[in-house]
UniProtKB/TrEMBL annotation:
<dbReference type="InterPro" id="IPR039104">
    <property type="entry name" value="6PGL"/>
</dbReference>
<dbReference type="GO" id="GO:0006098">
    <property type="term" value="P:pentose-phosphate shunt"/>
</dbReference>
<dbReference type="GO" id="GO:0005975">
    <property type="term" value="P:carbohydrate metabolic process"/>
</dbReference>
<dbReference type="GO" id="GO:0017057">
    <property type="term" value="F:6-phosphogluconolactonase activity"/>
</dbReference>
<comment type="function">
    <text>Hydrolysis of 6-phosphogluconolactone to 6-phosphogluconate.</text>
</comment>
<dbReference type="Pfam" id="PF01182">
    <property type="entry name" value="Glucosamine_iso"/>
</dbReference>
<dbReference type="InterPro" id="IPR006148">
    <property type="entry name" value="Glc/Gal-6P_isomerase"/>
</dbReference>
<comment type="similarity">
    <text>Belongs to the glucosamine/galactosamine-6-phosphate isomerase family. 6-phosphogluconolactonase subfamily.</text>
</comment>
<dbReference type="InterPro" id="IPR005900">
    <property type="entry name" value="6-phosphogluconolactonase_DevB"/>
</dbReference>
<keyword id="KW-0378">Hydrolase</keyword>
<comment type="pathway">
    <text>Carbohydrate degradation; pentose phosphate pathway; D-ribulose 5-phosphate from D-glucose 6-phosphate (oxidative stage): step 2/3.</text>
</comment>
<protein>
    <recommendedName>
        <fullName>6-phosphogluconolactonase</fullName>
        <ecNumber>3.1.1.31</ecNumber>
    </recommendedName>
</protein>
<feature type="domain" description="Glucosamine/galactosamine-6-phosphate isomerase">
    <location>
        <begin position="13"/>
        <end position="240"/>
    </location>
</feature>
<dbReference type="InterPro" id="IPR037171">
    <property type="entry name" value="NagB/RpiA_transferase-like"/>
</dbReference>
Amino acid sequence: MSAPEVVVHAGPELLAAAVAARLVTRLVDVQAAKGSASLVLTGGGTGIAILKQLRDSPARDAIDWSRLDLYWGDERFVPADDDERNEKQAREALLDHVPVDPARVHAMAASDGPFGDDPDAAAADYARVLAQRAQPEDHGNVPTFDVTLLGLGGEGHTASVFPESPAVYETERPVVPVRNCPKPPPTRVSLTLPAIRRSAEVWLVTTGEAKADAVALALAGAGEVQIPVAGARGRRRTLWLLDRAAAGKLSKVYQPPVG
Ligand SMILES: O=C1O[C@H](COP(=O)(O)O)[C@@H](O)[C@H](O)[C@H]1O
């Protein structure tokens, strides 16, 4: 597993623009090397701001959108047209504006979808989708995601893996239903930390002072049961992409120059 690297940008707009630019470069490089690429999307304010920056960037056309598999790290288990849904927000921010292959957009089921209001069935279905997409070289039932974008909460959750919740203790299943979330909406579906750790690169993206304690604790070596984002690591790279406010409580060890 890779050691965390930290990059700090001056503010939230610059962070979103810089991550969008970084994504273009990484996805183009992966497509050049392998033919296609995979990207796991996050919900949340910073994650959606990055997608909007990507939509508005002329460089977005360098990505071959038809050769990109898209997944989600977590989903709010609400009806498909609910504004809280991460998929809906991502479609409005970016996916409706670029020529993605609909067969390669792997969204988690909604609460009015084929499995009805049953998050266990929705989670099991997404695990099946991942298993179908995994290749022999992935050595397991989850594809090696090229880039996984993740946000985090002020209490340390990432995807919908919350501190001290059943999801954080999961060691077998790649996808779990999540109930009674402290942050609304209360029911969700989420990748687990073992599934996230199948990623080649994990990029933790966040902004604002409210995230500073969680960022500092995770990078100081907190345990993943208390601070789940501490357990989000990529096999090749773990990149923390922060604005100055989110980086405000980092120790000297993690005080890179601000760009
Ligand atoms: O509920 C969620 O929250 C987190 C963080 O969101 P933010 O708005 O505080 O940045 C996000 O990572 C997750 O995907 C989402 O479902």
